[in-house]
UniProtKB/TrEMBL annotation:
<feature type="domain" description="Nicotinate phosphoribosyltransferase C-terminal">
    <location>
        <begin position="357"/>
        <end position="466"/>
    </location>
</feature>
<keyword id="KW-0597">Phosphoprotein</keyword>
<dbReference type="GO" id="GO:0047280">
    <property type="term" value="F:nicotinamide phosphoribosyltransferase activity"/>
</dbReference>
<comment type="similarity">
    <text>Belongs to the NAPRTase family.</text>
</comment>
<dbReference type="GO" id="GO:0005829">
    <property type="term" value="C:cytosol"/>
</dbReference>
<dbReference type="InterPro" id="IPR040727">
    <property type="entry name" value="NAPRTase_N"/>
</dbReference>
<dbReference type="InterPro" id="IPR041525">
    <property type="entry name" value="N/Namide_PRibTrfase"/>
</dbReference>
<feature type="domain" description="Nicotinate phosphoribosyltransferase N-terminal">
    <location>
        <begin position="5"/>
        <end position="129"/>
    </location>
</feature>
<protein>
    <recommendedName>
        <fullName>Nicotinate phosphoribosyltransferase</fullName>
        <ecNumber>6.3.4.21</ecNumber>
    </recommendedName>
</protein>
<dbReference type="Pfam" id="PF17956">
    <property type="entry name" value="NAPRTase_C"/>
</dbReference>
<comment type="function">
    <text>Catalyzes the first step in the biosynthesis of NAD from nicotinic acid, the ATP-dependent synthesis of beta-nicotinate D-ribonucleotide from nicotinate and 5-phospho-D-ribose 1-phosphate.</text>
</comment>
<dbReference type="GO" id="GO:0004516">
    <property type="term" value="F:nicotinate phosphoribosyltransferase activity"/>
</dbReference>
<keyword id="KW-0328">Glycosyltransferase</keyword>
<comment type="pathway">
    <text>Cofactor biosynthesis; NAD(+) biosynthesis; nicotinate D-ribonucleotide from nicotinate: step 1/1.</text>
</comment>
<dbReference type="InterPro" id="IPR013785">
    <property type="entry name" value="Aldolase_TIM"/>
</dbReference>
<dbReference type="InterPro" id="IPR007229">
    <property type="entry name" value="Nic_PRibTrfase-Fam"/>
</dbReference>
<keyword id="KW-0808">Transferase</keyword>
Length: 477
């Protein structure tokens, strides 16, 4: 599907106005960032960059798009002609997918003709906000699972096909190991998993017959759903009967899945029953509207669970369903020179950071695998061995620090120019490993699911001074 019209009407209205009033090649720079992490967390796992780059690289309007815009009788003919010749004239700097990103830090910065970057706003935010939200939720869930495999099961509850497909990819980036979504599995080369639903059992005269039929067809994939009628009175006993028959025929069973009831207590009793029957290696999978907090509670109760299938609360991030990433102008070209731009608010935390910026992750000089802080700087600043920095958190009381004994690593990388595209990693498992490596470098306290510590993010004095200068100029107009 062509996504060029996947934008808000006001983007086209502004672009048409820019065309009629400003130089057509006037350049602008916009940043994508967020102010508050979902679920009261401390960070977000960046995701969606590959799709953003692909969309921007191939940006164009079809004749049908132009005909529709013309039918609205809202745009000038000259502007519509401009759109017929649209192609990528933009450059993007971005954090690699899988990077833990903190409030105020740009996920990406896009530079190009003002009309073009304005028209790309909604599409870019749609992709980055959704996929980063789901990747972050998947990280929370897989962290709670404590290295137990988590399968993404959410396609039927996702808000549409695209959310199901790209949500599955984001879930892999966040830590899941497989998906039930066959199309996503095909597109992103990830394992497709799934066995039976309750309808399978209900389609046979009785549960045991249904289990035997499944085992006959899939003798090496006998994961049996045991809660259709009664987990302990029929489901597990019938599963054990079939497991014995499979073993006698030279096959080992996979295990059982419990999809309802008091999963902690049912799993404990089912585990004992299968162990006593000689199947200590048969796995127990739990599903049914699970999330990070439920999983943590189940494990804290001693539930002997081996795997989790997570659906709606992952694919919709139901406990915190929106990542409110924003797209704000940071600089505008005027007569060949870049002018920093700022958005001012009565709320200090909503005042934007002007200019062309770089984000640095600082590592302990004596322990280079230990990240200690992030610094947002102007892109042309030289980061030396000592930085006078101001906290990006407007709520702290002691906001000025001197940073020393660090190794600074720039995070924003050039991924797209009008003439060249850098290779963005496509394999979600490679991105997952990158995310895990970066998360391991952060303080453990920042990764708590409840009341996490806030990782320090600072601004350089030059950036703060520029911001204040623009505030003073705007308020004295």
């Amino acid at each position: 599907m062509n996504h060029e019209l996947l934008t808000d009407m006001y983007e086209f209205s502004m672009a048409n106005g820019y065309y009629l009033t400003l130089s057509h090649d006037k350049q602008a720079r916009f940043d994508v960032f967020y102010r508050k992490a979902p679920d009261d967390g401390s960070f977000v796992i960046s995701a969606g960059l590959k799709q953003v780059v692909d969309e921007v690289k191939n940006w164009h309007f079809s004749p049908d798009d132009i005909a529709y815009l013309k039918s609205l009788k809202h745009f000038s003919d000259d502007f519509l002609f401009y759109l017929t010749e649209a192609h990528n004239r933009c450059s993007i700097e971005a954090l690699p997918e899988g990077t833990p990103v903190f409030p105020q830090e740009p996920f990406l910065s896009i530079t190009g003709p003002l009309m073009d970057v304005q028209l790309l706003e909604t599409l870019i935010l749609n992709i980055i906000n959704h996929q980063s939200l789901i990747a972050t939720k998947a990280w929370q869930i897989t962290s709670a699972a404590d290295n137990r495999p988590v399968m993404e099961f959410g396609a039927r509850r996702a808000q549409g096909p695209d959310a199901a497909i790209y949500g599955a990819r984001a879930a892999i980036i966040g830590g899941c190991g497989s998906t039930s979504n066959v199309l996503a599995a095909k597109l992103f080369n990830v394992p497709a998993v799934g066995t039976m639903a309750h309808a399978w059992i209900e389609s046979f005269p009785d549960e045991l017959t249904a289990f035997r039929a499944w085992a006959k067809i899939y003798p090496d994939n006998a994961a049996l759903l045991v809660d259709t009628y009664d987990v302990l009175q029929s489901g597990v006993p019938n599963a054990i009967k079939v497991f014995k028959e499979l073993r006698a025929a030279g096959h080992e069973p996979v295990g059982i899945r419990i999809d309802s009831g008091d999963i902690a207590q049912l799993a404990k009793q089912a585990r004992k029953m299968m162990d006593d029957a000689g199947f200590p290696d048969a796995k127990i999978t739990a599903s049914n509207a699970l999330d990070a907090h439920i999983i943590k509670s189940l494990l804290n109760q001693g539930a002997p669970l081996d795997n989790f299938g997570i659906g709606e609360r992952l694919i919709t991030s139901s406990s915190s369903p929106v990542l409110s990433g924003v797209y704000k102008m940071a600089a505008l070209e005027n007569k060949g020179k870049w002018e920093p731009k700022i958005k001012i608010s009565n709320s200090r935390e909503k005042v934007t950071l002007p200019g062309h910026k770089q984000v640095y992750r600082l590592y302990d000089k004596h322990d280079p695998q230990h990240a200690v802080a992030d610094v947002i700087a102007l892109a042309d600043e030289q980061i030396g061995s000592k930085i006078t920095a101001i906290s990006a958190d407007v709520h702290v009381t002691r906001n000025k620090v001197i940073l020393t004994d660090f190794i600074a690593k720039p995070l924003l990388q050039q991924v797209l120019t009008p003439d060249k595209t850098a290779t963005c990693e496509a394999n979600p498992f490679v991105i997952q490993r990158f995310a895990k490596k970066n998360l391991a470098q952060l303080p453990a306290a920042t990764q708590r699911l409840l009341n996490p510590d806030h990782f320090p993010v600072y601004l350089t004095k030059r950036l703060v001074d520029l911001q204040q200068k623009l505030i003073d100029e705007a308020t004295n107009m």
